[in-house]
Each structure stands twice: as C-alpha cells, then as structure tokens.
Design a protein that fits this description.
This protein is of the alpha/beta class. It has 12 helices and 12 strands. Helix 8 links the parallel strand 7 and strand 8. Helix 1 packs parallel to helix 12 and helix 5 packs across helix 7.
Length: about 325
C-alpha cells in the first residue's frame, strides 16, 4: 500500500528537489502550500504522516487527518504541536534531535563576532558614505582570550564550544547535570554555578529546553550579575530571556549588546522595543536555516517514517504514545 506524507511548511523549489530525491519507495509526498483549499480538504484525511518545521499543528488539523499515523518534526522542539491533543488522539510526535547542530553553532559564532566587532554599525556607516576606519576601534574586541559562558551544555552548546575553541576562548558552564569528566577535559570546560557563569563570562549563551521552570530564566537579577562589556547570544528558545528586562539592561549600560534569533512571540512585529536598539542584532529564528541542514533533517525525518512504517518502532518520540497509530 502506498503511504502519503504531507509536507506542511512552505516548499520552495530547492526543498521540493531535496524531498523528491530522498522520497522513499512506496511513499507519496504532498505539499500543503501548493494545494488549493479544496485539495487540502480532500487530501488531509488521506495523509498517513506529516513533516513540519515551523508549521503549527493544531487540534483541528489532527482531527481532520483521520488516517494520520505519526507527526514527524524536522527539529528538536515540539512547542508548535498541540502535544496534549496528539496524546489524546494517540498520534506519536517524532523529532530530529541533532540535525541542525552545525548550522546553529556556526550562526552563534557569527553573532559573537558581529557583536564584538560592531559589524552592523561598520556596514551602516560605510554604506552611508562615511569611512569609519577608526570610529569603533576603542569599542571593538577580539574573540580570542574571552570567556564564553553557557547555561546548558548539551549537544548544540558543545558544537558551539568546539568551534569557539579555535578562536582561543575559555569555556565555563552550568548545567543541572554536570558533564562527564572526559567532556570537560575535551573542552577544557570549567563547571560553575549559574551565578558564577553570569559573573565571569564575556559572552553568554543560553542552551536549555523551554519548559515551564526555565521561562524567564534570565531576567533583571541575572543581568545585573554580568560584566558591563558582556554580550548575550540566544539561538535557543524565546521566553528563556525576559525581553523587557533585556531592554532595560541594554539601554542602561548594564551589558554591551545582544544578538537574538529566537523570540518570546514569533513572528515579531516591527515595533518591538529591542528592534530600536543599535546594540542589538535581531534575526528571525534563522539559525538552523541552511539547505545543508534541511537535507540532513529531512533525511532523518524520512528514515524515521520508514522505520515507523516497517517496524512500528520509530525513535525520538516525544509523546506518551510511542508507536504509530494504526488506521488500516
């Protein structure tokens, strides 16, 4: 029997080319954004699997997708899926836990360098016809010799640390679960309390799951602990940093700057207070966004769908329901 996979996000030609190249035998792939409303109504009940990255999967879609056996994410987060409904309907939700690590880590290094070297201001002045050759030298810094502090030291944090080590940084971190000794040795990483990390770092990265106890983990009390020339980079999740308090810290000289790729409410409107600040680099949750990452994540997603179909035992399932819903 042919199985139908519904790809829910926007599918530019380059994405379609990758998906069609990787499509397993015995499967169709349908593209949600290329369907008319009538086609959506007709095909949604016939979809056996869905793949999504940013598309929000809500109750109404799941209830109409009466043949749906599994929801497969191409990332690690599940906050854009109604997980309560998925469990209620017995639909497992799978993730791809390590597909975007390289892209996010490279982007985080990009954020650090751009902030330390005032890249945004240099470009703006140069394009405006000025020649700011010396203008920012007294407020520009090298990455070399700086202390890079992490709260959360899992897979992506370690990918960042691996690349940052090439620039000659010192690694410090806090995590609820301390890394094994061999990992600390590999990264020459020093374990500290959360407060010590904030006090001692020149560059701060937060890399923890968005669970209720982590919301607003970094607020005014934490920001007051940091050095005045410290910078913050966040490619992880919105709501980890209190954006109002971050605005206060940036406008009062409490810290030097911030680069934010993930936001409390996405998409962000153009009048967001942080958008008005010159010492903020704002990007639209783009850190995982490369065609290389897309290829890796889709490949793993499709492999897990095939695994679910052939063995009934998909991996990296985040719901209480672990096996594909049988609708035959």
């Amino acid at each position: 029997m042919t199985r139908n996979i519904l790809y829910l996000d926007k599918a530019p030609d380059a994405y379609v080319e990758v998906l069609e190249k990787l499509k397993p035998d015995g499967f169709n792939i349908w593209y949600w954004d290329k369907m008319s409303e009538r086609e959506k109504e007709e095909k949604l009940p016939l979809a056996h699997y869905t793949i999504n990255t940013t598309f929000r999967i809500k109750r109404d879609l799941m209830e109409k997708a009466t043949s749906l056996r599994m929801i497969q994410r191409t990332g690690v987060g599940v906050n854009n899926v109604d997980m309560e409904c998925a469990d209620e309907l017995g639909i497992p939700v799978g993730i791809v836990p390590r597909g975007n690590g390289v892209a996010v880590a490279e982007f985080e290094i990009l954020q650090m360098l751009a902030l330390l070297r005032n890249l945004r201001a240099l470009e703006a002045d140069t394009k405006a016809g000025r020649w700011p050759n010396f203008k920012y030298r007294d407020v520009s810094y090298e990455l070399y010799g700086k202390t890079l502090g992490f709260i959360g030291f899992g897979y992506i944090a370690r990918e960042v640390a691996k690349r940052a080590m090439g620039f000659g940084v010192k690694i410090i971190y806090f995590d609820l679960v301390r890394a094994p000794e061999e990992v600390e040795t590999l990264f020459s990483a020093t374990y500290m309390s959360k407060e010590e990390v904030l006090k001692n770092c020149d560059i701060f990265c937060i890399m923890v799951p968005l669970v209720p106890e982590n919301r607003n983990m970094i607020a005014l009390p934490e920001l007051k602990l940091m050095k005045k020339n410290a910078i913050i980079c966040n490619c992880d999740r919105g709501y980890l940093i209190n954006e109002d308090d971050l605005y206060t810290a940036l406008t009062t000289g409490m810290i030097k700057g911030a680069a934010i790729d993930t936001w409390a409410d996405e998409p962000v409107t153009r009048n967001h207070p942080l958008f008005q600040l010159e010492n903020v680099i704002a990007t639209p949750h783009a850190s995982p966004g490369t065609i290389d990452t897309f290829y890796k994540c889709v490949k793993q997603a499709l492999e897990n769908i095939v695994r679910a179909e052939q063995t009934g035992n998909p991996i990296d399932i985040k719901t209480k329901t672990k096996t594909p819903r049988i609708t035959d």
